[in-house]
Amino acid sequence: EVQLVESGGGLVQPGRSLRLSCAASGFGFGGYAMYWVRQAPGKGLEWVSGIRWNSDTTEYADSVRGRFTISRDNAKNSLYLQMDSLRVEDTALYYCAKTGPSGHYFDYWGQGTLVTVSS
Amino acid sequence: EIVLTQSPGTLSLSSGERVTLSCRATQSVRSSSLAWYQQKPGQAPRLLIYGASSRATGIPDRFSGSGSGTDFTLTISRLEPEDSAVYYCQAYGNSPITFGQGTRLEIK
Predict the structure, then answer these.
(1) To probe the interface with B, which of A104, A107, A113 has the most B CB atoms within 10 Å?
(2) Looking at the complex, does the CB of residue A107 fall below 8 Å from at least one CB of chain B?
């Protein structure tokens, strides 16, 4: 059974940092691109960042580029998101998502970890 | 960057009815790389359709997707109470990926 379990969320002040983790199991983690997708309270889905299977390519939404860094450790079946210079507008539920076998759609999602940026 | 516009924004229908949700792109979606998701309150999104028309594992055949280029639709042939949710489309054949703003479906 595929499982994605996010952790690391919490309450943080503007300008501070937070590191999210996603522990994957039940599939060949090293063979798939992975993404972070967020959802602000009461809002829609927003793509944040993606990373290819071998980490050679990373992508970022304009809203987080230069502040967030995505990475992965295939030996540990883990995905990470380092979030620096956090802003109030980064407040959201952050989902870890696995891409499908035939493209960058998302066939499995974690339950999310909540990040709240507030003074 | 492709912008996806979903319509209608909200709708309310009865069980047993048929509904078609629309997703329109500002430019052609490469290789019909369009997915649909269902999200219920307090839950993560669930993949329904990928490749514009392929049903994901375990999705009932009441759900069907169609379209190409810039116009795509999700049809639910016989609504059931559990179909009450927000539905999102996603384009993934072009970079960057992008989501539509969602359509909220209420079952009366």
Answers:
(1) A104
(2) yes
B3 touches chain A (CB under 8 A): no
User: Which is nearest to B95 in space by CA: B36, B53, B45, B33?
Assistant: B33
> Does B16 score more than 90 pLDDT?
yes
Backbone angles phi, psi at A107, to 5 degrees: -90, -15
**Which residues share a beta bridge with B99?**
B90
Identify the pLDDT of residue B99.
Answer: 98
| Arithmetic mean of pLDDT, A99-104 | 94
State the sign of the Cα–Cα–Cα–Cα dihedral B52, A2, A9, B95.
negative
Chain B: closest CA distance from residue A100 (Å): 9
Residue A2 has φ and ψ, to the nearest 5°, of -70, 130
